[in-house]
Design goal:
Oligomer: homodimer
CATH class of chain A: Mainly Alpha
CATH architecture of chain A: Orthogonal Bundle
Number of domains of chain A: 1
Radius of gyration of chain A: 14 Å
Structural class of chain A: mainly alpha
Number of helices of chain A: 6
CATH topology of chain A: 434 Repressor (Amino-terminal Domain)
Order of helices and strands of chain A: HHHHHH
Helix content of chain A: 55-70%
Number of strands of chain A: 0
CATH superfamily of chain A: lambda repressor-like DNA-binding domains
Largest interface: A-B, 21 and 21 residues
DNA sequence: GAATAATATGTCTAAACTGACATATCATTA
DNA sequence: TAATGATATGTCAGTTTAGACATATTATTC
């Protein structure tokens, strides 16, 4: 995992409980974190494509600006559930979700 | 969405809050539910391939037999987070997760 | 460079989720 | 059909996550 990504993560409140790999992440944990990053990047990308502010986007998915900011930052208080619900709320399809997860 | 699937869902405690489509599911809600079904099916399939009882599998992912049963049943008290964490815990890759979501 | 908009961060209470346990139902087989 | 193992269901107390709000920081525009 790249340095930039790790900085982003520790900034977002991540400090793994696990035992393996870099920064103490087990491979399962690493996969989870990677997944989160991909989902949050996709969300930010979609919001920007829609040309909405976080506030406007939040309203459209019935959330709040602060939560959207945290989602986009992959904050550790944000669940994968919320990320996915938000993506679906923004109109993404299962197919696109699948591609979001595998792409790279 | 097929009848069988709907029965399975209402049995699992689902009764949508939404406004559109069958059983009152909005398309975003429907996508979420469909996602859950695919994840829980995959989980059950993996456990069976590993030839583990729910109890043994639960132990391996640090959960409980009852929760595993609920995961496999797509129970409404089970989060997507837990499903995905369990899949990663069972050794699935991001690629396989992606395929699980799009397949069908 | 002040004003304004956008985004980030910290914190709260309520709601949702979790593992665990008890117990019920169903399946297998002796 | 009794016994044993597997799975399902209900409940609960502890934990995590949610939206909301306040406020800080950063961008944009005048």
């Amino acid at each position: 995992m790249e340095k930039e990504k790790l900085e982003r993560l520790s900034k977002a409140g991540w400090k793994a409980a696990g035992t393996e790999e870099f920064l103490g992440l087990s491979s399962a944990e690493a996969a989870l974190v990677e997944l989160r990053l991909r989902l949050s990047d996709k969300l930010k990308q979609r919001r920007r494509t829609m040309k909405l502010s976080q506030t406007a986007f939040a309203k459209s998915i019935r959330s709040s600006q602060s939560r959207v900011a945290k989602m986009e930052a992959s904050d550790s208080t944000v669940s994968i559930d919320l990320l996915i619900r938000s993506l679906f709320g923004s109109g993404i399809t299962l197919q696109e979700l699948s591609e979001t997860i595998s792409d790279r």
